[in-house]
Amino acid sequence: MNNEEFVNKLLSLLPSQTIELKKKKFHSLAFGMDKYVWIVTEGLLMSVRSAEDGRFKGTGLYGPNSILGVSGFYNETKDVTCFALSQTTLKCIPTRLMDELLMKDPVLCHAMLINISKRFIKVMDELEACTLLTLEDQIASFENTLRQMDLPDDLTVSETCIAMAIGAHPVSISRARKRLKSGRHLPE
Question: Which end of the chain is less crowded, N or C, counting CB atoms within 10 A of the terminal residue's CB?
Answer without folding.
Answer: C
